Structure prediction request, 179 residues.
Amino acid sequence: MTMPTGDSAPSPFEPPGDAVAAYAGGQPPGAGFPVVPPGGVPAQYGGTAPLPKRRNVFAVWLGLPIITLGIYSLVWWYKVNRETRFNPRTRVSPFVSLIAVTLGAFLIIPVFVSVYWTGQRIADAQRAAGLPSTCIPVLGLVLAFFFSLFTLYYQSEMNKIADAYPGAVTGQPVPLRGV
Prediction:
């Protein structure tokens, strides 16, 4: 069965006419068009993201949690998960990550899952900044068993992103280099 071709809208299942002509000319569909990753714009096409905050690793790990009776640790966890959205492909709800380490602690497993995936998101953010991904989620998971050293480790890895943009201010949109 064929559809009338008058002034009807183009079918979403067929490529536009020029793409068909390009393919007929020997080029595959999409040749010459930029490939955009899902959820983001590649760096070479002007993608930007707000710069994560550089924090003192010892203050994050020990100082502020002691002063605030542990509340700062929860605030930091929310903020670091929000800042991992530096990579535009990262889809994370910082609130869900926070719930996983608070209420999820009663089930034990969600805490470790959240710690692991946060490390993975930090590694992805490092790649988006054009850095080698030096954050190892398994190491963060192991350090969680030793005086919560994963906070110190993860913040030092996040600081590498901030250090990659000298002169930029926290929250300032900076160009992505490696998406």
